[in-house]
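Supplementary Methods, section 5.1.

A reviewer requested that the exact input to the structure prediction be made available. We therefore reproduce it here, unchanged from the version used in the analyses.
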Amino acid sequence: MKIEAKVEIFPLKKVFTISRGSRTLAEVVTVKLTKNNIFGFGECVPYKRYDETLDSVLKQINELGPVKNRIELNNLIPPGAARNALDCAFWDLEAKLNNTSVENLLNIKILPIITSYTLSIDTPKIMGEEAKKNSHLPILKIKLGGGEEDLDRIKSIRLAAPNAKIIVDANEGWSLNEYKKLIPHFVELDIKMIEQPFPAENDYELKNIDRPIPICADESCHDSNSLDQCLGKYDVINIKLDKTGGLTEAMNLKNKAKQLGFEIMVGCMIGSSLAMAPALFVAQDTKWVDLDGPLLLSKDREHPLHIEGSSIHPPLTELWG
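The structure derived from this sequence is encoded token-by-token as follows.
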């Protein structure tokens, strides 16, 4: 088994801003596994919030040593971006070596899914204009981050997109007082879900407050070991393969979260179609899907996912799986 890893950069269509900062590029690590002249591919996005960098992820992969399969892999590397790229590459390779598909390996019928489309933080006026441009889409995900303008942002967006379902992501940016101030307005404005309002270390606050709008755990939930800490605080779990460490644990987390009564959201970092393809398998039969990464890029992979409006179609085998 030969393992190769490299950094690839995909420019974004425009600046993308969340509560932690802005970016103009998607910087990813691509893994290529080779066995018997057959190739398997995977992609991950190192995330500073989780103390990951491009260099640290490359180092994890390059220092791994011999590994036979994804089961062995999951016992050697902790959850995170490096394991995600490797795990997904193993799934791709396994399907190709056995002349089958990941769909058959998982025994899942993969169908087109509807993704939300994300609007990054800006002034209320500009976010309203962006919402109007995309008001034909069924679900808009709005990045917020605290401050007095969050309510004005949502009011502007709701006015511009009266028929869209709206979900918001605070990226740990709110205080308890901000939440209490915003929530009655958000109920009135028909906000469907709120993602990670408080910093993960402060999310105990969620046990003691009303949650008239479902609250989703993102930074507070990484893999199935995180689930017990989410009970009584969250209603929805956001599964991202870069957090779980790949498709293998993502499917495990999905099954366990459903057994515990959580709704499921499948999300992504900003990456290419190669990163979204395995996540589509997790996204089948889930409440919310946020896999719009390729829509934010000015250039994608060869054989990209086919996306019509908000509908993402299953990947071509030339891409993955």
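The two ends are 18 Å apart (CA to CA). These observations are discussed further in the main text.
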